[in-house]
Amino acid sequence: AGVPGNAPGATFDIAISEYCAPINMSNGSSNFCNDACILYDSGGPLGDYGPVETPIYTICPPNPTGCLVLDFSTYDIDCVFDGLFIYNGNSTNPADLITVIRGTGTNLEVEVPSGCATLFFQSNIAIAAGGWAMTWSCTATPCTPTIVSDCNSATAVTSLPFSGNYSTCGAGNS
């Protein structure tokens, strides 16, 4: 029958894109590689993460060749006891730890050079917080991991007033 209003035998271009429903952090994985996927903490976009959580989520697209970029639009993770551990690769091998995200901030980018990332979240029994919202994308070019300051490796503020892109608790807050 054809498409109404078009000439018989006409050709059409059809674009197909990946769709990824929002994901609340739990044990699982994804092989998508576009910024259509949103990974939230277990509480989702409107709730806090819970106590005593230890989920692991791996993002590993087929045939990774470049940089996997994790974009946190917002994060709020207890700065003392909880943390989102990000590993380079598809395991939680301590030698592959890139960073631990703690504290509160916005617009944080983490580059994962292998093209695959494993996220391990750990929360204690006492304190819950707002969590995070993260998308990810892949590039065809290599990346260099960014060193992120957190509660355990904070940059000292030696004089006031202070200005700069550093934080005494959190990943790159100013």
Blueprint (SSEs and pairs):
Elements (H helix, E strand, L loop, with lengths): L22 E2 L3 E3 L7 E3 L15 E4 L8 E10 L5 E6 L8 E5 L1 E10 L4 E6 L8 E8 L36
Parallel strand pairs: 1-3, 2-4
Antiparallel strand pairs: 3-10, 4-9, 5-8, 5-10, 6-7, 6-9
Write up this protein.
The protein is mainly β. The protein is 0% helix and 33% strand. The strands form two sheets. The protein has a five-stranded mixed sheet, with no helix packed on it. The C terminus is likely disordered.
Question: Quick recap of the structure?
Answer:
With 174 residues, the protein is mostly beta strands. Helix content is 0%, strand content 33%. It has strands spanning 23-24, 28-30, 38-40, 56-59, 68-77, 83-88, 97-101, 103-112, 117-122, 131-138.
